Amino acid sequence: MKLMRKAALVMAAVPAIVFITPVGSASAHGYVSSPASRSAQCARGDVSVDLCGQAKYEPQSAEGPKGLKNCSGANGAFAPLDNDGLPWKVTNTGQTLSLTWTFTARHATRDYEYFIGGTRVGYVAGNNQQPTNPTTHTINLGGFSGRQKLYAIWNIGDTVNAFYSCIDLNINGGGGTTPPPTTTTTTPPPTTTSSTTTPPPAGGTWAANTSYATGSTVTYGGSTYRCRQAHTSLTGWEPPNVAALWEKV
């Protein structure tokens, strides 16, 4: 009788033990690690843990609905990332910037978007594929200068959510950032040289790998655009995607 009573007590205790056993965090996703985003700065201790909230421990998890323009994904645990008054380190850059995403879970990707204020300055298609880890993109910041906050957004292909990173920049602040030597690009731009770059067409259709002078016009998607700043075009810099380079006429 005593043996049966002991066995019953042991079996009754098992569900309680299972219930209180800590469950490992499933929040593993991605963030901009270079140049150091606000999340990255929190994770590496550049900003005090007391100021950073959950970003200190999970820089990759600032997740929220698609379409936001903030640093936290409207996630209260990451709200300190939206505070422009914290001592964020600023990256000096020229008119182009290379950014590297680090992933802890490689979700199928709709696309990546980069904004300064309400202007989208970069776009990379994800083709609903898993990204390589890490992944580097190069974007054009033409038309902007001085202290700016860049919103980097990773839109997931099979959920309604996106992941958000913010990078504090000083554009034309004395140099650019150098991408790490072992990174890859999701959609590598074509190599351009002086021998392959073509002159701007006179009223022709926009094309990648082409030099455009300020004031030249092109057509794209049935609309006409005027070049706002001289540049050599790359895939992903189509006129509707880079308002800093093209204006619709």
TrEMBL record:
Organism classification: Bacteria, Bacillati, Actinomycetota, Actinomycetes, Pseudonocardiales
Family matches, as Gene3D superfamilies: Carbohydrate-binding module superfamily 5/12 (2.10.10.20), chitin-binding protein cbp21 (2.70.50.50)
Signal peptide limits: 1-28
Keyword Hydrolase: yes
Pfam families, alphabetized: CBM_5_12, LPMO_10
Biological processes annotated in GO: carbohydrate metabolic process
Transmembrane segments: none
Region spans: Disordered: 174-205
GO molecular function ontology, one term from the record: hydrolase activity, hydrolyzing O-glycosyl compounds
All residue ranges annotated as the Chitin-binding type-3 domain in the record: 203-249
Pro residues bias spans: 178-191
UniProt keyword terms in alphabetical order: Hydrolase, Signal
Name the UniProt record assigns to this protein: Chitin-binding protein
Keyword RNA-binding belongs to the record: no
Protein source organism: Lentzea albidocapillata
Gene Ontology cellular component terms for the protein in this record: extracellular region
CDD domains given in the database record: ChiA1_BD, LPMO_AA10
InterPro entries in UniProt: CBM5/12 (IPR003610), CBM_sf_5/12 (IPR036573), Cellulose/chitin-bd_N (IPR004302), GlcNAc_Chitin_IntDeg (IPR051024), Ig_E-set (IPR014756)
